[in-house]
Specification:
The chain has about 475 residues and is an all-alpha fold. About 70% of the residues lie in helices and about 0% in strands.
């Protein structure tokens, strides 16, 4: 009778106790670390009411929910509603005006973290030019500060490199028997650095890299191939090679033989340097993911998507295959993913960084795959396509296209004749007046367009990164 009377006196408390979920492990762990007064102080500092009638475990549940970005207050500020947010108009009456403002800001941050779409115009130069440029310059200043701090922390290395560069410059300006050797070393270093830099530009930027193989290395290999078959030799006079290709005197020699492997050997060094540059360009995703894992930050969204395997599209399945290959096979999985033309290799760097794959393992496999295997595959394809017989057959195929075939064929025929005449000029003869063909004009426009797109993507990426960093610091 006494218990039934007690239940009749407090039906609301009975309902609340029946609907309350069991305490979470996080709340139990928090209850062992903090006192009830400390819990109430922290809740009040967050702008959340902490009525005296709440038990310690209820305070812990409320604090855990607030830390996760969810406020569990109801309209009277006393009941706990597990895992849900109140309606926008249901602001606790116990809060002051300042606490109400903090409450609304925290609700907005919670909505942002749940992934609800925001009606904000994206940071694009043609949509918000002033704001985009502001964030771009702010991010540039921030990155320069980070670079200055990094160099200052390694001032010994910077000092040694500056001293060696100064000594090399002084020695190069002093006449002597060593001048010719230093000039050769300088030319080789600049030539190698040029291709390494182009390789870095090709792979850096998480998919927004400049396609320097199509713009520079591929045309260079094609030009060497055409010249080799025209001259029946790869012993081009240097100088002007590699800046300009000319046939050696007396070529083509009687009985001269030209093979694909001779051409491949001629362009092997620049191709390997370009491949090494692409391997270096894959390091930023690795280091970013590794630093985030060591700092205890959330997993990269792209990696989380690849691990879930929920996306059944072709791209989603390819990402999942790359992730499983890297995680299960290790060195040889990285080597295999780097050895084929693979636009998803950025995911391999993120995966290796997140799972703390040792740097020598990741970079060694990437360097071997890209600079040795992949480059030979691409190089052989270009040389095979621009071999004399294959290239002439391709031009004939253009002529067989109905209606427009003759118009497509003519520019290629003229370009091929002009290139042959250029290759067989006498060494030291002037290049003559430039008469650009349609192919050269189209190639120039393609280069300008792709470089412009690359620079624009960098501007947008840096602006969005700066805006994201500013929003994160405000939220904290």
């Amino acid at each position: 009778m006494e218990s039934s009377a007690h239940l009749r006196r407090s039906p609301r408390r009975q309902t609340a106790n029946r609907n309350r979920a069991p305490a979470s492990s996080a709340a139990l762990a928090l209850s062992e670390q903090k006192t009830a007064s400390a819990l109430r102080s922290e809740l009040l500092s967050l702008g959340v009411s902490a009525p005296a009638k709440l038990t310690k475990i209820e305070l812990c549940e409320k604090l855990v929910a607030c830390r996760a970005g969810h406020d569990n207050d109801s309209t009277d500020g006393g009941d706990v509603v597990n895992g849900t947010l109140p309606h926008d108009n249901m602001i606790p009456l116990s809060l002051s005006s300042a606490e109400r403002e903090q409450y609304q800001q925290r609700r907005q941050a919670s909505n942002d973290s749940t992934g609800e779409p925001k009606a904000e115009v994206p940071l694009l130069l043609w949509r918000r030019p002033i704001t985009t440029l502001h964030h771009f310059f702010a991010e540039s200043y921030y990155q320069l500060q980070q670079l200055a701090q990094y160099l200052a922390s390694r001032w010994q290395f910077v000092a040694v490199m500056a001293f060696l560069s100064a000594m090399f410059a002084v020695a190069s300006n002093i006449e002597g028997p060593h001048s010719e050797h230093l000039a050769s070393v300088r030319a080789s270093a600049l030539w190698s650095g040029w291709w390494i830099g182009l390789g870095i530009l090709s792979s850096v930027g998480l998919g927004t890299g400049l396609h320097t193989f199509l713009l520079y290395l591929g045309p260079h290999i094609a030009a060497v191939t055409l010249a080799s078959w025209s001259c029946m030799s790869v012993d081009f006079p240097s100088p002007p090679y590699p800046d300009e290709i000319q046939c050696p005197p007396g070529s083509p020699a009687e009985g001269a033989v030209m093979t694909i492997w001779m051409i491949i050997s001629k362009v092997r060094w620049e191709a390997m340097m370009w491949g090494a540059g692409t391997a270096i360009g894959e390091l930023p995703p690795y280091f970013v993911a590794r630093a985030a894992r060591l700092a205890g930050q959330d997993m990269d969204p792209e990696l989380e998507e690849a691990m879930s395997a929920d996306d059944q599209s072709i791209a989603g399945r390819a990402k999942h295959i790359v992730h499983r290959l890297i995680k299960r096979v290790g060195f040889w999985g990285i080597f295999l993913a780097a050895s084929i033309p693979n636009p998803l290799f950025d995911l391999a760097g993120i995966t290796c960084g997140h799972f703390l794959v040792p740097f020598p393992t990741f970079f060694g496999a990437t360097l071997l795959g890209k600079a040795v295997v992949k480059m030979h595959i691409q190089k052989i394809l270009v040389v095979f396509l621009f071999t004399k017989s294959h290239f002439e057959s391709l031009i004939k195929l253009f002529g067989r296209i109905p209606t427009v075939g003759a118009y497509l064929q003519q520019p290629f025929v003229e370009y091929l004749e002009k290139q042959k005449a250029k290759y067989h000029r006498k060494v030291g003869a002037g290049a003559g007046p430039e008469d650009g063909s349609m192919i050269q004009l189209a190639y120039g426009l393609l280069v300008i367009g792709m470089i412009s797109y690359f620079l624009l993507s960098i501007l947008h990426s840096m602006a969005q990164q700066n805006a994201k960093r500013g929003a994160g610091s405000k939220r904290q």
